[in-house]
Amino acid sequence: MARRQPKKKAVSEGTETAVLDLAGLVKVVEAQGRQIEQLLRATEEAGRKGSGSSATAGPAARVGVFVDSANVELAFDRLRARADWKKVLNLLVDGRTLVRATAYSPVHDDPGVSIETQRFAEPFLGKGFKVVTKPLKRFADGSIKANVDIEMALDIIEMLDRLDVVCLVSGDGDFQRLVEVVQGKGVRVEVIAVGSSIASELRHAADRYIDLQPLLSKIRA
Description:
Layout: H1 5-57, E1 62-68, H2 69-78, H3 85-93, E2 97-107, E3 130-135, E4 137-138, E5 144-145, H4 149-159, E6 165-169, H5 176-184, E7 188-193, H6 200-205, E8 208-211, H7 216-219
Parallel strand pairs: 1-2, 1-6, 2-3, 6-7, 7-8
Antiparallel strand pairs: 4-5
């Protein structure tokens, strides 16, 4: 019996050593697990930041703004309101890249009349717009007309290769076909008008419609 006691002691010591080794191993594994969790959290956070920056790093859409000034100014007149066209322009561009903003304005047929006094041209002067004018035509029956549709359409078509979005500011239903042609070239069309002045066929043709009437508090002159 005396000879077997050392063997039991050796077994007991070996068991204790194994237990200690196992406990140490568990601690190492737990520490590694915590490190992995921290690494995963750091990776996920970096991924979120990276996806956010990539969303804003791409090129901004190129926008052209084309305004049928008589159409929208008369619509504002019916509301007894005036718009600050600089504010309107900022609203329409909305962080995108503005390529060109043009207002098409009928003016008096007397070239001696200053453009600063022209009802449909003056609101756009100094507001970031190029103003294209067309003299009024007087007919024998006394009627007056100055249609700028053709000028607008030609300018828009000529600029399509430099634009991603066309902002057409008019409620005139005659522009429906123009909208469809522009869309056929892969360019988005946003139609902007004032309240009920928009023709239903033009509104439905647009990729996006913006009514300026509810926005008067933001764009009022």
